[in-house]
Amino acid sequence: MWFPAGSFDFGDQLLDLDSAVIRGAGMWYTTLNGAKFYGHGGTVEVYDLLIDGGTNERDDEAFTNAFHGAFGPGSIIQSVWIEHTKAGLWLTQPIGEKARTNELYMMGLRIRNLMADGINFAVGTTNSMMEQSDIRYTGDDGIAMWSFTDGKLTDVNGSERTPSVNNTARFNTVALPWLADNIVVFGGKDNKIQDNVVMDTVANGAGIAVSTRFNAEPFAGTTVVERNTLLRTW
């Protein structure tokens, strides 16, 4: 689907995607007001547009993230501007479904002024990467990798173990999260935080944290945190 230059209103509609390619005329030219993409494990590609969610409050039960759900192998989100949503990208297992995010590639994103996380590699996200993106003024963690245990969220075998495995965040800039960490890894296996710049943490967080809070799965394998630059944070 092609969106030319202009502004397009989506209201409260949730856009369910399985396999789709969506392109705009560029993040400075194509604006999707209120667009909310919900992935179900297929191959989804989104390029060259701005999503303005119009969200000014945090409701953890509402689907008001720009991208939510599972995005399968070959999925790409590139050159997308996200602003005024709850989270920018919440990668998770859709309720009642087997699919989880695997092999999603994200590059050149501009994420601004959110009520929650910039991105969360959550609930079994594997083999996925975000790089060369800029995240500023999030209402929770800028970049999070959260492997959490929750009796309501089980894997396809009925297990409550949902580690996020072999994900990478590299060459990103994360500034001014106003509630939590710039970058954090909560449990999981073989995740990597490399070559990022983090700065100006506001409150209740660290520049980079490695933690087992929030019902996180135990760490396994090797968690790599290397060559990052921390400015006015710790």
What features would you highlight for this structure?
single chain, 234 residues, mainly beta, Pectate Lyase C-like, 15-stranded parallel beta sheet
| Strand residue content | 35-45%
Quick one: CATH class?
Answer: Mainly Beta
> End-to-end distance, in Å?
44 Å
What is the helix tally? 0
Question: Overall pLDDT, averaged?
Answer: 94
CATH superfamily: Single-stranded right-handed beta-helix, Pectin lyase-like
Rg from alpha-carbon coordinates: 16 Å
Number of strands: 25
Categorize the overall geometry: globular
Task: Please characterize this protein's 3D structure.
0% of the residues lie in helices and 40% in strands. It has 234 residues and is mostly beta strands. It has one domain (6-231): Single-stranded right-handed beta-helix, Pectin lyase-like (Pectate Lyase C-like), CATH 2.160.20. The chain has a 15-stranded parallel beta sheet that branches. An eight-stranded parallel beta sheet has the order 2-5-7-9-12-15-18-22, with no helix packed on it. Strands 19-23 form a two-stranded parallel ribbon. The chain is globular. Residues 151-159 have low confidence and may be disordered.
